[in-house]
Amino acid sequence: MVLAPVQTRGPLQSAQAQLREAVEFLGYDEGVHANLSRARRELAVSIPLMRDDGSVEVLTGYRVQHNYSRGPAKGGVRFSESVDLDEVRALAMWMTWKCALIDVPFGGAKGGVSLDPARFSLRELERVTRRYTNEIAPLIGPERDIPAPDIGTDEQTMAWMMDAYSTSAGVLVPGVVTGKPIGVGGSQGRAAATSMGVVFIAMRALESLGLSPASATAAVQGFGKVGRDAALLLRRRGVRVLAVSDRYGAVAAPGGLDIDALALHVDTTGTVVGFPGAEPIDQAELLELDVDVLVPAAVEMAITEHNAPRIRAKVIVEGANGPTTPEADTVLEDRGVMVVPDILANAGGVVVSYLEWVQGKQRYWWTAAEVESKLSAKMDAGWEAVSWEARRTSRTLRQAATALAVRRVADAHRMRGLYP
Question: Which of 25, 213, 257, 398 has its CA 20 to 30 A from that of 239?
Answer without folding.
Answer: 398
